[in-house]
Amino acid sequence: MMAMAKTSGTPARRTAARPTAKTTAQPAPQTSGTARRARAVVCAAAIIVVLALVSAFGWPGWAVRTPPEPVEVPAAVASATPTIAAQPLPTDASELVKILPEHVSNYVRGAVESSDEWRSAAPVEAYAVTYGNGDQSKDVRVMMGQWADAEEAETQYAKLAKALDGRQLAAGNIKVSGQNTGSYVVVAGKGSDGNATALWRNDTVVFRATGPQASVETVYKLFPV
After folding, report:
1. What parts of the sequence cross the membrane (predicted)?
2. d(C-alpha 217, C-alpha 118), whole Å
3. Environment class of 17 (CB within 10 Å of its CB; exposed 0-12, middle 13-18, buried 19+)
4. Going by fewer Cβ within 10 Å, which terminus of the chain is more open, N or C?
5. Count of beta carbons in the 10 Å neighbourhood of residue 181
């Protein structure tokens, strides 16, 4: 609000307002051009409203929204929880045996047995164990052996890898903390039985997993050693 300026002298006298005659303003007559323009504005507004409604419900992606398609969960993830109990390790289990996990995905550890299958290669110790999920047709047989040093283990790995006969599915190096500690190879079985063999060496220990291809791939990829 602006301040009023102060003036010197006597205040101005108030004079009585003279009464004036009351008049009523009459609206100006509307010309035909003005009426046409008003009708045009109303029609244009109506057309815009109609077009907006049609677009909202007829144009893709507008007001009508469809629910998103459900995401398919891979079977390997959905069935990762074991449905049967693992077999306990022997009370006198060696440190090598103790590295065997109770389960790999939904495949649980069966009874661990000493094995002499690789006896000719003179391992320090060797064992066989089956990992399964209750369906024997999907069992994976795992052989493992430990040698006195990495060179002896590599010799056995190379011998077993050479004996594999079938189409190679995968191969590469095993790394621990950025260092190469061994190699692996996966080979499909010959014929149409759908079996496969995964062979890998990690330092002084050699593993071999055999069984149905899907089961073998799950076990060897997730095996922690």
Report:
1. 40-62
2. 23
3. exposed
4. N
5. 15
Strands (E) across the chain are located at 103-104, 107-109, 113-114, 125-132, 140-146, 168-176, 179-188, 195-202, 205-212
Encoding tokens for residue 58? 């007829």
pLDDT, tens digit (0-9, with 9 covering 90-100), for 35-94: 666 666 556 666 665 565 555 545 444 444 334 433 333 333 334 788 899 999 999 999
Q: Where are the domains of the chain?
A: 36-65, 79-222
Whether 153 and 147 have beta carbons less than 8 Å apart is answered as yes
Alpha-carbon torsion angle 192, 194, 195, 198, nearest 10:
120
Residue 196 is classified by DSSP as E
How far, in Å, CA of 145 to CA of 195, rounded? Answer: 22
- pLDDT over 50 at 178, yes or no: yes
Max distance between CA atoms of the chain, in angstroms, equals 133
Quote the pTM value.
0.65
Report the distance separating Cα 106 and Cα 77, nearest Å: 9
- Give the amino acid at 167: R
Give the tokens for residue 9.
């002298």
> Measuring CA to CA, how many Å separate 22 from each of 16, 19, 28?
18, 9, 19
79-222, what's its fold? Answer: Protein Transport Mog1p; Chain A (3.40.1000)
